[in-house]
Amino acid sequence: MSEAQAHYKRPTWLDRHLMMPAVAGFTRLGLSVWGSRVLEVRGRTTGEPRRVPVNLLTFEGSQYLVAPRGETQWVRNLRAAGDGVLILGRKRQGFSAVELADPDKPPVLRAYLKRWKAEVGIFFDGVSATSPDAEVDRIAPRHPVFRISL
Which domains does the chain have, with CATH numbers? Predict the structure, then answer.
């Protein structure tokens, strides 16, 4: 997807200042909120570590990071770096990441929506885990998905 066509749903003030810091805080304390982790990835411009809470999905024996908000900064940084660290409390797990092609995303997106629809469903244009294949295929290009290897 070109930069001009990139989809990005900006966090609200409440998300930025209350929800995301709360989830990140619990996760840093070692309390996973529905599979949450803190993603640490090297900034593509500065090289400095950047941290953001993410939902780690385990599906069919593999682990995935899905970007419900689309082309976020963590997505761009992970593409550039190719690896990162998942943090839960004091536990740090390094990983490598491979981005899935759009045709490979639908089963992962369905599993993600089944698990976290209440939390992130607003970012998927009304598509749910039980939506027709055509609808899931339609939104797939708007939501980057990475398979990670710990």
Answer: 34-149 (2.30.110.10)
